[in-house]
Amino acid sequence: MASLISTGDEVFLMKKGGASVRRRSYSRTIDVRAAGGVIWRRSKKSIEVVLIHRPRYDDWSFPKGKLKQGEDLRSCAIREIFEETRLHVALGQPAGVIRYRLGNGQRKEVTYWMAQELPSDHPAIVARPSYSKASKNEIDGLVWLPLEQAIEKLTSELDRAILRRLRSMKESGTLETSAVLLVRHARAVKRSNWKKGNGSEVTRPLTPRGVKQSKVIAAQLANYGVTQLHSSPWKRCMDTLRPFEQAARIRIVEHPELTEHAFRDSPEPLKQTMRQLLCGNTPSIAVCLHRPTLESVFRRIAHRTTADVVAKIPREDPYLKPGEILVAHVARVDSDSGKTRVVAVEKFRPTTLAVV
Fold it and tell me: Which of 49, 42, 79 minimizes the C-alpha distance to 64?
């Protein structure tokens, strides 16, 4: 049985000996889902990568593991990485998806993100739950290796293909990225229901469902290692980011130009603010926005990227559903001029299994 590796929309069928054939889709049912990370760092102008050893299989691989009930892929990746390496990391751009058949015949899919270790005093760490540690029966070795040595040491050809992608990113200057999380505020009370249609838009609140969504959003901001929060000052946006603000102990920066009314009256200040926030100067930021502003914001992203990434940017109203997130991964492709490019985007709605 051949295995599969996906690098976004394309899937590569990996045959014996490492040969690969491109396929455009893979629709078979997935029985087991897992997530993990490719942890990397710079060392004396080179790249080093973390590999772990599993005694049960006597193999070298990336830290990864199966989803727990009710868990989403990103939270699973963060948890498994910590349990197997004792490293707190922030997720970067997607690294790829591999699919293969287990010994019992089930089909397994593993989703990977590029990841980097966070400093011990990073605000996202205190906003995360506590994790256990994998036993030595599960993981009995961890090494940092130079990229080329890591490619050789990995047991799986599928994993080697992931590292070859990392090498290509390094060579093109698109490996090191900053994450800009664009968050549409969580579900709010309908305009027609807010004080019988006479309530101020400035104070229109979240619904009980929206409050629960805001807590789930906070977990995702922690996964990406957010260090700055930016928002429209209207209540429903501020309250969407409030759980992470309180957990991470950082303050929300209010931007009056991001409100619906300000954008309607004069869109240029919002455009200027988004140019600044998309410059990639901060490792990871989150911005909470209103639906009417999203078309303009996404147009700014589209101007900074390539056709294959543009295809993944929403182009129709409502662009994002309440509580949905678009992550723009920004790379500084020319350090001299400061020129940046959005090299990857992710759109997802944080799992809300607990929301009823």
Answer: 79
Terminal-residue alpha carbon distance, the chain? 41
**CA max distance for the chain:** 69
- Sort strands 252-254 and 228-231 into parallel, antiparallel or unpaired: parallel
CA–CA separation, 134 vs 55, rounded Å? 12
- Contact, 65 vs 130, CB < 8 A? no
pLDDT digits (tens, 9 = 90+) for 153-188: 999 999 999 999 999 999 999 999 999 999 999 999
Residue ranges, CATH 3.90.79.10, the chain: 36-97+115-172
Q: Domain 177-348 belongs to what topology? A: Rossmann fold (3.40.50)
The first and second tokens of residue 178, run together, are 């900053």
In whole angstroms, give the CA distance from residue 37 to residue 52. 11
SS3 content of the chain, % helix, strand, coil (to 5): 30, 30, 35
What tokens appear for 57 in the block? 């299989």
Distance CA 38, CA 94 (A): 10
Q: Which two tokens stand for residue 80?
A: 């498994």
Give the residues across from 180 on adjacent strands.
Answer: 285, 328
pTM of the model: 0.91
CATH number of this structure's domain 36-97+115-172, picked from the four choices 3.10.310.10, 3.30.160.20, 3.90.79.10, 3.80.10.10: 3.90.79.10
